[in-house]
Amino acid sequence: xxxxxxxxxxxxxxxxxxxxxxxxxxxxxxxxxxxxxxxxxxxxxxxxxxxxxxxxxxxxxxxxxxxxxxxxxxxxxxxxxxxxxxxxxxxxxxxxxxxxxxxxxxxxxxxxxxxxxxxxxxxxxxxxxxxxxxxxxxxxxxxxxxxxxxxxxxxxxxxxxxxxxxxxxxxxxxxxxxxxxxxxxxxxxxxxxxxxxxxxxxxxxxxxxxxxxxxxxxxxxxxxxxxxxxxxxxxxxxxxxxxxxxxxxxxxxxxxxxxxxxxxxxxxxxxxxxxxxxxxxxxxxxxxxxxxxxxxxxxxxxxxxxxxxxxxxxxxxxxxxxxxxxxxxxxxxxxxxxxxxxxxxxxxxxxxxxxxxxxxxxxxxxxxxxxxxxxxxxxxxxxxxx
Length: 386
What we know:
By secondary structure, the protein is an alpha+beta fold. Helices cover about 25% and strands about 25% of the residues.
């Protein structure tokens, strides 16, 4: 495993970051437990604000905290008297997502479903059902390039709560895990919010839950009178309104391998941005030797870097020219999941899908010893307006 030094607690993470002057994207150091829960004492706190607190003069403030094994940060224009209530409400929104959708928490709704017996039926909380509905729709639309049942593979390759690993899995357990990964095995009634457990299904929302958390926070802030805000959770962002000087929230997309250079700069207003990439989180096996003479799921005797982005169709980490994909969307949940799906699809199929669906997407591709970018017309239009 290639270890990376942890970042300062309150740094921006992810491949996108707010622009300060000519600054580019900040580093992304997601821990192996990138969706591990961090509960707050304010989980049971009221998520309503005192109306008088929002009636006093407002100014630009920044609130910060921990959730989903990473950091969150919110820049907003609000009265100082409202900040304590706003911070509690933000944390409560994120804590709810963790309590329902974190596979790292044994008592979460998703973990209880994953352990359930075959044939059991489960009435899901509304947020859980909303995320599952979106995930299954994308799985169908990408013909399985995106799959929320990828949990067994994430664990096997060392990117889930089962813990990190330093070598590729053996062929037999890999084949067993692949048998459990198929979104078409799920029977879900979105109106009744009832999901059946076919036996061995293991949901993993790591590629969509952070984006959903961003949406929950942004929606809550808007509902409580905060019209100007920039919400970030683990590098996924959504912005509304303007800064105090009237300028837009400008976001830099990191250029892989060039931390002082931005691949693009985008102005966000009523818009979200999310990036998926394999140049930050991966492992390099220290050995391909396995006991018992069993061959691994990868070639022996050669060095290889394994991305944390898994292709559910092959059961293995992606091995294509895509270094990162950035997606713009009104909802961060969709931007988050789409960025992963396009990364799995690869340069040609991913760009074709993005253009067919009229997505605003930026692909950073490996070419020789460097990188090249390919953007859809929708992304170019947003970039020109920045």
